[in-house]
Amino acid sequence: SKKDPILVADNVSRSFGGIQAVDVDHLEIPRNAITALIGPNGAGKTTLFNLLSGFDQPDSGEWSFNGRSLAGIPAWKAARRGQVRTFQLTKVLQRLTVLESMKLGATGQTGERMLASIFPFLWRAQEKAIETRALDLLRKFKLYDKRADYSASLSGGQRKLLEMARALMTEPEFVLLDEPMAGVNPALVQSLLDHVIDLKSEGMTVLFVEHDMHMVRHIADWVVVMAEGRIVAEGPPREVMMDPAVVDAYLGSH
Ligand code: ATP
What we know:
- This is Amino acid/amide ABC transporter ATP-binding protein 1, HAAT family.
- One of its GO terms (molecular function) is ATP binding.
- The chain has 254 residues and is of the alpha/beta class.
- It has nine helices and ten strands.
- The strands form two sheets. The chain has a six-stranded mixed β-sheet with strand order 6-7-8-3-9-10, with helices on both faces. The chain has a four-stranded antiparallel β-sheet with strand order 2-1-4-5, with helices on one face.
């Protein structure tokens, strides 16, 4: 609940040249809930996501995950503490098979460069456990039959499923999903939504960036709205969608 947020951020700012992309005074992400981060194009959603997930550094600001400071901590370390993210344009490695991509997910790494240095350790130390977990997740996400295929051969929706499954390899507590519905075939939409709801049922906390309001209305418990780098509204979906500040933020951008 809001009384025990999984993430608390204060005075987080990031600018690019003269553009103040993020200028957030205060943000709390409720634990064991699904929170949507929405806002018009250029609002700063991706920048905030990159900061919180350790893929970019703030100019200033502080945030804590489970009560411990996480500001400026790189993504792979955050993954060890229980926070992972997915990417809008999937980073599923084109030259790896589905199963290999899953195994790499166990390292909390996203880069192909890491393969050479990390795989030998995985092999010796934990390969069996990692493979078992990978295959279990692939079954759950209905990608088991694709395990030996190159990731590049998957459809857009299957890549989103793989991206989500791969994020679960580190057994996270907090999962940040970057536009999980973008480019997904309508036939796979419900399945993706069900998987996100499952994360919550399994005790995880989800934060997602999404333009698809269907997803926001159907599965978000809480909505945070950004405009021009700031948080302009937050609350349950029904209330937030009717908030004049939110309507203004969207209309103002067109
Ligand atoms: P969208 O919904 O279109 O993805 P967004 O809400 O994610 O938008 P950001 O991508 O975070 O918005 O961008 C916020 C602002 O910061 C924009 O004005 C953008 O042009 C600027 N910006 C973001 N990243 C960079 C960068 N690497 N270099 C320069 N400007 C940037």
